[in-house]
Design goal:
By secondary structure, the protein is of the alpha+beta class. It has one domain: 2-Layer Sandwich (Alpha-Beta Plaits), CATH 3.30.70.100.
Length: 70
């Protein structure tokens, strides 16, 4: 298991946070998703290897801009 952080640009409200949380939680292999509006960060635990492209696509498909992933 690996804890990761993704910068998410374009969030403006709690509904945005809920949308990003839901999108990342739906990705197979990601758990414990927490999105911080003030810091524009999503943190999550990767329980199995997940491609960076899949993680970024989950966020961009709902209209937000994924940034640095660490």
């Amino acid at each position: 298991m690996k804890k990761r952080t993704l910068v998410v640009q374009g969030m403006h409200c709690q509904n945005c946070v809920n949308s990003v949380t839901k999108a990342l939680s739906a990705v197979d292999g990601l758990t414990e998703v927490h999105v911080d509006l003030a810091k524009a960060l999503a943190t999550f635990v990767e329980t199995k290897p997940v491609s960076e492209d899949i993680i970024r696509k989950a966020v961009s498909d709902i209209g937000f801009e994924p940034g640095e992933l660490s």
